[in-house]
Amino acid sequence: MPELPEVEVTRLSFADRIAGARILGLQMGKPLRWPLGCDPAQLVGHRVLQVRRRGKYLLLDTSGGLLLIHLGMSGSLGFAADLPPSGKHDHFEMRTSAGSLRLHDPRRFGAVVYASSEDDASARKLLGRLGVEPLGEGFDALAFHAALQLRQTAIKQVLLGGEIVVGVGNIYASEALFMAGIRPTVRAARLSKPRAARLHAAIREVLTQAVAKGGSTLRDFSNAQGDSGYFQLEARVYDRAGLPCKVCAAPIRSMRQGQRSTFYCVNCQKP
């Protein structure tokens, strides 16, 4: 599943090129997770103003409203002046004066949703409960610790929930917890201020590294120019069950948490 770094890498790969372009047409394929919410012809003739990100959502501000794009489980965006003919897994395409933006989504858990603005009910429904952006100035270590004190569930599950800090998905939660030396099963409320501060810093560092490496390509992720990511080659614990820890050489262990795979080092990560 594309996580925050993959979504940010996707944004960076086409945002500057599409900004200012005039929308020439929108084409919808098979139904996605949610309906578009407007007549596609409604946006024709308007201009793309900018592309932003909120959590795992891409926000395309246009002169005629807002498009919220989610990549779902297996989605990716392509942007080019000469994309090949659409295939059976291409379910959204927006033609512009600068090129075409296409969503390829084999599992169709992604979505493209129209809203008049972020204050629209449809946008609030998707964005309203998202936590603080981990790479933004609003991600404060003390506030992070205070919020964790109210949660009695395992710290990894709290991170995946996205209500305290948004976008720390399965790969990067495992990596950040390893960097901070925290066992994934520790109850969030048990974390002291120093341990929460280490986790706060680790989240920032891991996500920053992942964006710099182009995200993680475990199966088929690529950015809007077709480039794969390489962060998975840097992973310290994720998907390394049975392999030696890069710090202490103990075998990396795996377990299931909330139906997701968790990877950790029993020596380096303390309960």
Q: What is the arithmetic mean of pLDDT?
A: 92
> What is the H/E string?
HEEEEEEEEHHHHHEE
Number of strands: 10
Distance from N terminus to C terminus (CA atoms, Å) equals 28 Å
Q: How much helix, percentage-wise, in residues?
A: 25-40%
Shape: elongated
Low-pLDDT windows of residues: none
Helix count from the secondary structure assignment: 6
Radius of gyration: 20 Å
Q: What percent of residues are in strands?
A: 15-25%
Structural class: alpha+beta
How would you characterize the overall build of this protein?
- It is a single chain.
- This protein has 271 residues and is α+β, with helices and mostly antiparallel strands.
- The chain has six helices and ten strands, in the order H-E-E-E-E-E-E-E-E-H-H-H-H-H-E-E.
- The protein has helices at 4-18, 121-127, 141-148, 155-161, 170-180, 193-212; strands spanning 23-28, 48-54, 57-62, 65-70, 76-80, 90-96, 99-104, 111-115, 253-257, 260-264.
- The strands form three sheets. A four-stranded antiparallel β-sheet has the order 1-6-7-5, with helices on one face. A four-stranded antiparallel β-sheet has the order 2-3-4-8, with helices on both faces. The chain has a two-stranded antiparallel sheet with strand order 9-10.
- A hairpin with a 2-residue loop joins strand 9 (253-257) and strand 10 (260-264).
- Helix 3 crosses helix 6 (193-212) and helix 5 crosses helix 6 (193-212).
- It is elongated.
- The mean pLDDT is 92.
